[in-house]
Design brief:
Elements (H helix, E strand, L loop, with lengths): L18 H15 L3 H10 L1 H6 L2 H12 L5 H10 L10 E5 L6 E5 L1
Antiparallel strand pairs: 1-2
Length: 109
């Protein structure tokens, strides 16, 4: 039998979920986007399954559309991940996708 992939539950099984870090990231998403915090929080939690079972970029784009938010999604994602606004440092955020595994990575510099 050939396997094409392995799926397992990482957070709260093998690794404790970093609640404080996650809350800071959510706050940066809200701040960078200029979203209403309560509306974002409600939508973020209601769509948890979608976010956890699919790619994050289309998920965030659909949240932005539903909340009527504009802006550069990649800049918003970079700010949320790094805590820095890419508007302050244009061209400094790099998104890379591995050709062999398809996994993505974000780097600064």
């Amino acid at each position: 039998m050939r396997f094409r992939g392995v799926i397992f539950d990482l957070w709260q099984t093998l690794v404790p979920w970093p609640v404080d870090s996650a809350n800071r990231m959510y706050g940066r998403l809200v701040e960078t986007w200029g979203a209403d915090p309560e509306a974002f929080h409600e939508l973020w939690h209601r769509r948890r399954k979608e976010r956890e079972t699919g790619p994050i970029e289309p998920h965030l784009r659909s949240i932005a559309d539903e909340l009527g938010l504009g802006g550069d999604l990649r800049a918003v994602m970079a700010s949320a991940v790094t805590g820095r606004s890419s508007r302050l440092f244009p061209g400094r955020t790099r998104f890379r996708r591995s050709r062999s595994s398809g996994a993505g990575a974000t780097s600064w510099g």
